[in-house]
Write a structure and sequence with these properties.
Length: about 150
């Protein structure tokens, strides 16, 4: 997907917030490959990865090492259904879609690997803060309005 200014700004904002609240137990990767069975190596806009960067020298994290993957969509979200299915089948615990077009953050949790879908979806709008949770523990929140384009 072409990375227009709004896309890049949203990814940078998420990265800044996540980097500020991270711990030694996990780190943030921006637009870096992850290993997903039957999906080659997608490059989500952001991923929260278990452990330190040093633990992944010479390899990319796979499903067991991923807490969250996030994609930012600004023009078309047609391929997000395919990504969502593949991330769910891989058992990625949390999948975010930052929908710049419709002005929301979609948070998918509780993957059903057998059918390739998430059992839970919660949408957060411009006046809300989306929680970032690692293994059921909220580690920080991000203001959805900070991720979205300015509306006239």
């Amino acid at each position: 997907m072409p990375k227009n200014p709004e896309h890049e700004r949203a990814v940078a904002e998420m990265q800044e917030v996540l980097t500020a609240c991270r711990s030694v137990a996990w780190h943030v990767r921006k637009e870096a490959p992850v290993r997903i069975p039957d999906y080659d190596e997608p490059e989500p806009d952001l991923a929260i990865v278990r452990g330190t960067r040093a633990a992944f020298r010479g390899k990319h994290p796979g499903p067991a090492g991923l807490y969250l993957v996030a994609e930012v969509g600004n023009a078309t979200l047609d391929d997000e259904g395919v990504r969502k299915e593949r991330y769910a089948r891989a058992g990625i615990p949390v999948y975010w879609i930052v929908d710049l077009r419709d002005g929301r953050v979609e948070v998918y949790t509780d993957p059903d690997q057998a059918v390739g879908n998430y059992r839970s979806r919660v949408d957060y709008g411009p006046g809300e803060q989306a929680p970032i949770s690692i293994e059921g523990q909220e580690v920080c929140r991000i203001a959805v309005a900070d991720l979205l384009p300015k509306r006239p």
